[in-house]
Amino acid sequence: MRLALVIRPFADDNLMTARQMGVEDVVTTLPHELQTGPVWDYLAIVRHKKRIEDIGLRWSVVESVSISNRIKLALDGRDEDIEHYCQTIRNLGAAGIPTMCYNWMAVFGWMRTSLTTRTRGGALASTYDHEEMKNAPLTEHGEVSEERLWENLEYFLKIVIPVAEEAGVKQGLHPDDPPLSPIRGISRIITSPEAFDRVFDIAPSDCNGITFCQGNFKAMGVDIPENIRHFGNQNKIVFAHFRDLHGQVPTFSESFHDDGDTDMASCIRAYNEVGFEGAIRPDHTPTFAIDKEETGGYNFLGRLYAIGYMKGLIHGTA
Fold first, then answer.
1. Strand arrangement, sheet containing 114-118
2. Residue pLDDT, tens place only, 260-308
3. Hey, what domains does the chain have and what are their CATH numbers?
């Protein structure tokens, strides 16, 4: 496995610090100022990639290219948006970017009911408590059924996966966060290991894979190492998020990577057992008291702390 980081703020000093920590891979999107239209421009991709490579790092995962509600909800303009997404895949493949992370959360993405839960030493962590959302009003889209989302995902995959195969860009589907349905009337369908099995049956392909987010599998209440083996032995894990929690749905709080409920060393051993060679990055870290940047779980100091912990686990389980 290869240690990777999301860099926020995306600055040369932070990129250099990541390299000095022993990180080799960067997980990033194309900066907004370089996104000049609905399709990511090939030259913009190449220039961003070279900026990363010139510091000694590798841009190995795109997280994420936006997938519109017109696609996820089958609204007018869906086919146009899918074609834009496909052309971006082609451009990324031509530039040598091998992996994309995406999600199928309609209307809103990852959700927390608190960003100020105190964890070890008073650090700030995020929490989801479904009790707080039971009386939340519906969104402008009203109620969206699971059946509708499955139909639309199948339509999307049958167009996109062949394009990904031709471009040589693996697609890693991220679990819904939280893995619970519905929220504000909007169903969530990628909420269990069985959901991923169904996704892979829809479009059998080496390019149809999973972003194995450990935090979401912990929130599902399943055995994480067992699922790493289940999907890893099928070569379906194309990218991984290293994250831990206290609790599981309907209520959980995020934790430091060395302070949650999961035996994280057993997860590293499972990745080794299945021969996982992709990028793995720390995800959602609490905010330290001396953090200068408030980026909602993506604080640079917390991520460097997590990298040190991950390196220790990797060396200790080798």
1. 114-118, 124-129, 251-254, 245-248
2. 999 999 999 999 999 999 999 999 989 888 887 666 677 888 888 999 9
3. 2-317 (3.20.20.150)
Can you tell me the distance from the alpha carbon of 115 to that of 294, in angstroms, rounded to the nearest whole number? 11
124-129 and 114-118 beta bridge pairing? antiparallel
Q: Which amino acid is at 51?
A: R
Hey, how many other C-beta atoms are within 10 angstroms of the C-beta on 208? 23
Q: What is the DSSP string of 268-288?
A: HHHHHHTT--SEEEE--PPBP
Q: Which amino acid is at 147?
A: E
Distance CA 192, CA 217 (A): 8
Q: Residue 52, Cα to own-chain centre: how many angstroms?
A: 20
Peptide bond into 282 cis (omega under 30): no
Answer whether the bond into residue 64 is a cis peptide, omega within 30°: yes
CA gap 127, 64 in Å, rounded: 23
Dig out the tokens for 207 from the structure.
């390019």
CA distance linking residue 47 with residue 95, whole number of Å: 10
Question: Do 218 and 267 form a contact (C-beta atoms < 8 A)?
Answer: no
How far apart are alpha carbons 227 and 222 in whole angstroms? 8
* Three-state secondary structure call for residue 240: strand
Q: Which amino acid is at 281?
A: R
CA distance 222 to 210: 16
What's the whole-number average pLDDT of the chain?
A: 95
| Residue 114, SS3 per DSSP | strand
